[in-house]
Amino acid sequence: MSKVYPDAKAALAGLLRDGMMIHSGGFGLCGIPALLIEAIRDAGVKDLTIVSNNAGIDDAGLGLLLKTRQVKRMVSSYVGENKTFAEQFLAGELEIEFNPQGTLAERIRAGGAGIPAFYTKTGVGTAVAEGKPTAVFDGETYVQERGIVADLAIVHAWKADTEGNLVYRKTARNFNPIMATAAKVTVAQVEHLVQPGEIDPDHIITPGIFVKRMIVCPPGYEKRIEQRTIRQRAPAAAGAD
């Protein structure tokens, strides 16, 4: 059966339900599965738990799901760029589980590796550790963190073959690879689709065994930039070649 679907709606058909947990790859607007997020919005499912490093911005990415109030709970590290998120949280309309960024990444990686829990020093003695078991190793206190396995992972990749082997590009790699391994079903949106054998095996980051469905981004697909920073180029020195 082909893993390639005609569009995001078709790729998510039969997978979405109210109250589910979704891993959403990306960091801000970099490497986010925007087309799949839009399809989740259009499906109207609600009471979602979203695991993502952050909540994007108000009018793009996961901000779209917050705007339509489809998200009940966020498991995140940083959410400072989204005003809608702040308003809903302060009004008691949105639950948040904050995680140190490294801890969040390791919780997801552990889930994909079949590790139910691990211990870390990060967060000991702070609100992050409240209500969690602790243990002493070599005279130091550590807090227990649980691995996370989601019902669905949505990720963005730069290139894939039809078998679902994924390659990510530079910083757009971010959380996508670990999330792809830590869900019951993983759906990927990819920029370039090639045939099996056209990707050097050494370049494959997510093996196709983890990817159940894919869509190809249409021509002209816009990858938003969260904050564009530029600087003036220094003039060439006089007489320089």
UniProtKB/TrEMBL annotation:
The superkingdom listed in its UniProt entry is Bacteria
**Record's SMART domains?**
CoA_trans
Please give the Gene Ontology molecular function terms for this protein.
transferase activity
Keywords linked to the UniProt accession: Transferase
- Tell me where the transmembrane regions lie: none
Family annotation (NCBIfam families): pcaI_scoA_fam (TIGR02429)
What's the protein here called?
Succinyl-CoA--3-ketoacid-CoA transferase
